[in-house]
Amino acid sequence: MTAVDRAASIEGLRRLALRRLPHFVGDYLEGGAGDGGGIRRNVDAFRKYQLLPQALAEVTPVDTSVGLFGKRYASLFGISAVGIAGIYRRHADEYLAEAARDANIPFILSGASHATIETIARIAPDHTWYQLYGAHSPAVTENMLARARDAGVKVLVYTVDYPLAPRSEVVSRTGVSMATGPNLRTLPRLVLDALCHPFWTADYLRGGGLPKLGSWAAYAPPGSNAKQIAAYYVKNWNNPQTWRDLDRIRSLWKGPMVVKGLVHADDALRAVQAGADAVTVSNHGGNKLDCMQGALDSLAQVRAGAGRDIRVFFDGGIRRGSDLIIAKAIGAEFCFTGRATIYGVAAGGLRGAKRAIDILQSDLSYTMAMIGCRTVGDITHDHVVAAS
Ligand SMILES: Cc1cc2nc3c(=O)[nH]c(=O)nc-3n(C[C@H](O)[C@H](O)[C@H](O)COP(=O)(O)O)c2cc1C
What we know:
This protein has helices spanning 3-6, 10-20, 23-31, 37-45, 92-103, 117-123, 138-150, 169-174, 187-195, 198-206, 214-217, 226-236, 243-252, 265-273, 295-306, 321-330, 339-370; strands spanning 49-51, 66-68, 71-73, 77-79, 107-109, 128-132, 155-159, 257-262, 278-281, 312-315, 334-337, 384-386. The protein is α/β, with parallel strands linked by helices. Bound molecules: flavin mononucleotide.
């Protein structure tokens, strides 16, 4: 039994992950935007609610499954897009996809992934969703969509909350971009950090150093190495998107489309009117700004303003099974995890990814039974109260 198997909570996996990662990598994962207040607020927003169990209900067998876009998934959560994930653990995209497939939950491949869309769709043909950032070149965007479609991906997640490249105080401090890696100026400062984290460093060096952004390799100048592909990506990945772009993406993608990164009820309604099949209330895990409300508070507002008729997914701050239940009670039809599953894969590769899913899943089914809910549909607003 490894330390990862013994981890009893996502917090346990987080500690293992941070022990393995050099500070310049771990601090980036934990840093978020600005002073990191956005991440803390996302997590703390759940503490404003407490569960209100109902007794004597038929609760066994607990059924955590949820139907989405014609498929029945095993749980109320899937794995959200996390870019450049191979920096935390080489082949993290592949491990997360495999773990999601085996657990029968969706896996959203980031538009800034190290693995290619074709690789991931081969590993998890029925569970891969594809996340798109609108590239500067419309031809690149179109090609990414065509590749996702040809690879058999059914669900598109269009992320719209980054009109400019993110600003990370951690990156400003360390001088190391996670995409392009260290350079000659920053390298000497990182050597001691790397030496103190030999398992991560050995994995990094054994894999050939900076992992290649497979999703962007096809668009960078021919013959580009990993650093050159990353430099191309940094310049070209996030063209500021507008409602016109949403119309264009909608006309190009024929399958289900989720618009991710909305926190305003008017935006949610407008996205659905423009043809989105669902919206994800998300503040990019606190990576966008450090002065936004907690994502769960945005969820409550979007539900209050946009009503019950639109499909609303949610991510931000989920670390426990009870968080999934609270999000569902507040109005999320489905939830996604970013860091929780990254902690798992960073701590223990495939085994760690599976452990993170198991922890959340068993916590979810236990807590559902304890509050008197046999199915996900039984969870309602009546099961939460404001914390006293
Ligand atoms: C390191 C990191 C990288 C991310 N990369 C992406 C990305 O490439 N595309 C995207 O749509 N969201 C990205 N996100 C946001 C996540 O999809 C998700 O919204 C967020 O992590 C949820 O918050 P949580 O980490 O508290 O679960 C990223 C988040 C993190 C922490």
